[in-house]
Amino acid sequence: MTKQVAVILAGCGVYDGSEIYETTLTLLRLDQLGIGYRCFAPDIEQHHVVNHLTQEVVEGEQRNVLLESARLARGEISPLSELVANDFDAVIVPGGFGVAKNLSDFASASDNMQVLEALKEALTGFHQEAKPIGLMCISPVLVPRLLDEGIAVTVGNDPAVSGAISAMGGLHRTCSVEDIVVDFEHRVVTTPAYMLATRISEAATGIFKLVDRIAEMMD
C-alpha cells in the first residue's frame, strides 16, 4: 500500500464521539481501494459521556477520547499530537457529536466555537501542502475555523448548521445524502452522511464517493 491516509477520531459513539458507521465505512472503502490508513485521536478527556440507549448524559462518569477511539480502531491508533502531514497523502475526519464536543465546542458555542488546537496544528500541514482533506456529517462545520474562510462544504440541508458555517465565513452548499461537495481549489471534500442518512446504505454511498474522490486527488 503506497498511499496512506490519516483518519482522525473523536471518541466512540454518535452522541459523544465519532459515528461508528461513518468511521467503519471510511476504513472499509480505504481498504477496498488498497489505501493504507492510520487512526489518530486527541489524548484528552471527553466533554461528557452519553448513554447511547437513553441518549442521556451519564453524570459523574469521565472517559478519555483516545482510549474510546481505540475501540473503533481495534487498538491501532496514535495520539493526535503524533500526526505529521508529511507522513500521509490525505486526511479524513468522520462525524459524530464528538466532533462538536471534543474536537471543538460547536455543540455549545455554535458560530462562536473554538477548535481544539491540536487538531488545527495537525490539519494545517495538510492544507498548506495541498493534500486532500475529507470531512463528513457535522465535521465540515470545522472548516472555517480549521482551514480558512471561503471554502465550500456541505452538511446537507440543516439550516442551523449551514447558517453557522456562513456566519463563520464559510460557504455552504446544499447536498443530498448520496453526493459530495468538492472544493477543488482548497482540495476539500465533504458529504452529509448521517446529517441526512436514514439507513447505513445511504450513508455508504456518499462516504464511498468521498473516499473515491480523495483517492483520485492523491494520484
From TrEMBL:
One of its GO terms (molecular function) is lyase activity. It catalyses: glyoxal + H2O = glycolate + H(+). InterPro entries: Class_I_gatase-like, ElbB. Keywords: Lyase. SUPFAM superfamilies: Class I glutamine amidotransferase-like (SSF52317). It comes from the Bacteria. Displays glyoxalase activity, catalyzing the conversion of glyoxal to glycolate. PANTHER family: ES1 PROTEIN HOMOLOG, MITOCHONDRIAL, GLYOXALASE ELBB. Belongs to the peptidase C56 family. This is Glyoxalase.
